[in-house]
Design a protein that fits this description.
By secondary structure, the protein is mainly β. It contains three helices and 28 strands. It has two domains: 69 residues, no CATH class; 337 residues, Neuraminidase. The chain has a five-stranded antiparallel β-sheet, with no helix packed on it. The chain has a four-stranded antiparallel β-sheet with strand order 6-7-8-9, with no helix packed on it. The relative contact order is 0.14.
């Protein structure tokens, strides 16, 4: 796989992280840069993923070294991931947090069928029946190409679908509309936002925002500027806000039926500007609903009004990826730099769960799962509360990782 390093290395990362890859520097407009990786899947089709600001590889299934491949698949038999298997030896499960925010951790949660191998696990949500949806990029050698895997609340496999999202599966959002629930999915590879039923039937899709003046002007190369949506939020009136996290760092707003409304944000460090708006959520904990945006390259959370006006910043996260809010007002923020942050309704940090941010997590994420430390996160990418206050965390690691944090206090 060839890596083209097109964005400044995030602070705190060691140059050694990039040594396994060949790299060359290429300029981008507005001095903004992204990481772009290319790989080929088992059918020989090339996929390209741009990462901003993550180091190389997010969103793709990087080629395994021979040593790691043999460690995982050398027997020729790939067993399914079994619920709680890592703890069947009798060892106690790790405990994270303290006080009212204490959790027992089950890593590799869910009975994944042998025919499905996770790629990078990017999104997670729960429906009204307690089913857990995992959106992943699909491993290169997976027998089945399905990117969406659904489990019941006990971790039993229910169904899978979504082969068209293979390689690009990213943001995942669920919303009840009338008497039905719908999923909204971001595909970074195809540059799409797709609304589907819970079974994967498409309702509509949003492509390149050509109606936006910000995207109407070609880039320095004469081509349309890059668009690669990473996550989205939906307002109470049905308006859709799409974060162009791996593209040009704008937020694009649409009506509930997909009609274009406005664009705001754009690359930069000043108030109202963004660098990789990787995640976004409608925050209704205050007197009026607002938008929380994971301004990841700027290492901050930025808040906006629903018409795109800057409100303020929230600090304390290193690389915020996305959000989910529980009914008591707690907000979970998966942080790509090896921890999961809990914030209260006043946005004060409660806990940094499973913090391993002092480790070499960018190398660890490429290893086999038996190299992951129990009770520590590697690269959390998505997280959600279930109806009981438990937390599900999915991680940007090459073999995928789904962890359930069962609330015990």
């Amino acid at each position: 796989m060839a890596l083209r390093a097109l964005e400044p290395i995030p602070q705190g990362l060691k140059p050694a992280v990039f040594q396994p890859f060949s790299a060359r520097l290429k300029s981008c407009p507005d001095t903004m840069r992204v990481y772009e990786t290319r790989s080929r899947n088992r059918n020989g089709n090339e996929s390209t993923e741009s990462i901003n600001p993550a180091p190389p590889g997010e969103g793709t299934n990087m080629a395994l070294t021979r040593r790691v491949f043999l460690a995982q698949f050398g027997t020729g038999f790939v067993a399914p991931l079994i619920l709680g298997a890592a703890n069947k030896s009798g060892s106690k499960k790790p405990i994270l947090g303290s006080g009212e925010h204490t959790y027992e951790v089950t890593h590799d949660w869910g009975e994944l069928p042998a025919g499905i191998q996770y790629g990078n696990t990017h999104g997670v949500c729960e429906d009204s029946q307690g089913h857990i949806y995992i959106h992943h990029t699909v491993y290169a050698t997976s027998e089945k190409p399905d990117s969406m895997v659904v489990f019941d609340h006990k971790g039993k496999f229910v169904k899978s679908w979504g082969k068209e999202f293979r390689g690009g599966a990213h943001g995942l959002y669920i919303r009840k509309e009338g008497g039905s629930e719908y999923l909204y999915l971001c595909d970074t590879q195809r540059g799409l936002v797709v609304k589907t039923t819970l079974s994967g039937d498409e309702v509509f899709s949003l492509g390149y925002p050509k109606e936006s003046e910000a995207y109407a002007k070609p880039g320095p190369d004469g081509k349309p500027i890059k668009y690669s949506p990473t996550n989205l939020a939906v307002a109470p009136n049905g308006d859709i806000y799409v974060g162009d996290g791996y593209g040009s760092s704008y937020i694009n707003q649409y009506g509930g039926k997909g009609e274009y409304i406005r664009t705001f944000g754009g690359p930069g460090k000043e108030a109202g500007q963004l660098l990789c708006p990787h995640g976004i959520i409608l925050d209704s904990r205050g007197p009026v609903p607002i938008l929380n945006v994971a301004d990841r390259s700027n290492k901050r959370i930025q808040r906006f009004t629903l018409d795109g006006k800057h409100i303020d910043f929230l600090y304390g996260t290193n690389a915020p990826c996305h959000f989910n809010i529980y009914k008591n007002g707690d907000m979970v923020v998966p942080d790509l730099f090896a921890r999961v942050t809990l914030m209260d309704r006043d946005n004060k940090i409660i806990e940094n769960l499973g913090d391993d941010s002092s480790s070499n997590y960018m190398e660890t994420r490429k290893l086999s799962r038996n190299r992951f430390t129990p009770g520590k996160f590697v690269c959390p990418h998505g997280a959600c509360f279930d109806h009981s206050g438990n937390i599900f965390v999915v991680e940007w690691v090459e073999v995928g990782r789904v962890s359930k944090l069962r609330k015990v206090a």
